[in-house]
UniProtKB/TrEMBL annotation:
Coiled coil: none
UniProt keyword list: Signal
Pfam family, one: NMT1_2
Family of the protein in this entry: Belongs to the bacterial solute-binding protein SsuA/TauA family.
UniProt name for this protein: SsuA/THI5-like domain-containing protein
Length: 331
């Protein structure tokens, strides 16, 4: 009888040990974070570095990355709980707030700090001047999106009004490049690597950078619903720390090293071209070196939106920006 109870106790102890061991194992598993990115672009190099170099994993974050192709679709995905975090232009958070919501979308970590588009001409122009746009057909970005607003901001600063050209803005974001390739427009506003690919193929020629001309703005930012941040503050904190580490990695490594790191995310693009694009963005300081979204940048964003006639209402920096995660990451 004593032996029977001894065996039972030993069995129960073993089971209990396995349960505790299993629980400990589960607690050390990474937090899964679903991220919806507005497009797949070399412009977002620090995000891909954070994944490929294991930086997110190091901070206990398992990123499930989905490309949602367009600001509207990305924000819809976030609002419908199809994603935990969105990587998209800050203007979208203002649009949502202006419509009225009990759960606003909060900008908590900035990724890029300039416009990421380039002006591409169909014909080769040896000495481009912004005046060359007058009377042309210009294939622009979607109305109400940050690329379009930053583009028009630059045009106005160069003395070009939208009435001075035939402006086309009714083509979906994902189809703009194919529309230009098929013959629509004399000029087009494009992200990389499409702009450089077109140049290699002789489809078009890069003549100017909207990023250089528009100045610093919170162009692409990680954002989440306020309810998600309130429920998952530690996850958001570790996510931002990982991002900051990746931003520093990008800032201190060469274009070649960055290109090699992010190459798996662009399987159809040659490494040399990725390197060229990274170097172009790096040289014009498009990659933010920390996740902070300061008030001056926020006001610049709203000024650009206002001048474009797209600002529904001015929103204080404190309403839709939470820099506490970025501040913690830099400690």
């Amino acid at each position: 009888m004593t032996k029977y109870w001894f065996n039972r106790i030993t069995l129960y102890t073993s089971i209990l040990f396995l349960i505790i061991l299993s629980a400990c194992g589960n607690s050390s598993e990474n937090d899964q974070v679903r991220v919806a990115e507005v497009t797949r672009s070399i412009f977002y190099a620090p995000q891909y570095v954070a994944i490929s170099e294991g930086i997110f994993e190091k901070h206990g974050i398992d990123v499930e990355l989905t490309t949602t192709w367009g600001g509207d679709k990305t924000m819809t995905t976030l609002l419908s709980n199809g994603a935990d975090i969105a990587l998209v232009g800050s203007e979208t958070s203002i649009y949502v707030y202006a419509q009225g919501t009990n759960d606003p979308v909060i900008n908590f970590a900035q990724l890029t700090q300039t416009d990421g588009t380039f002006l591409v001409s169909r014909e080769k122009i040896d000495h481009f001047a912004w005046e060359d746009l007058k009377g042309s057909t210009f294939l622009g970005q979607r109305k109400g999106g940050m690329p379009q607003m930053a583009g028009e901001f630059v045009l106005r600063n160069k003395g070009i009004n939208t009435q001075d050209l035939d402006l086309i803005q009714n083509i979906d974001f994902a189809n703009i490049s194919s529309a230009f390739a098929s013959g629509t427009g004399d000029f087009v506003q494009l992200f990389e690597p499409t702009a450089s690919i077109f140049e290699e193929q002789g489809v078009g020629h890069i003549v100017a950078s909207f990023g250089k001309e528009s100045g610093k703005i919170p162009y692409t930012v990680f954002m989440a619903k306020e309810s998600y941040l309130n429920k998952n503050p530690d996850t958001a904190k570790r996510f931002t720390k990982a991002l900051y580490e990746a931003q520093q990695w990008v800032d201190t490594h060469s274009a070649e090293e960055i290109a090699t790191s992010i190459e798996p995310f662009f399987p159809d693009t040659e490494l040399g071209l990725i390197t060229t694009v990274v170097d172009r963005y790096k040289s014009q300081h498009s990659f933010a070196t920390n996740p902070m979204l300061d008030e001056e940048e926020w006001n610049n964003l709203q000024n650009i939106m206002d001048e474009s006639g797209e600002l529904p209402k001015r929103v204080d920096h404190s309403k839709l920006v939470d820099n506490s995660y970025a501040e913690d990451a830099q400690k």
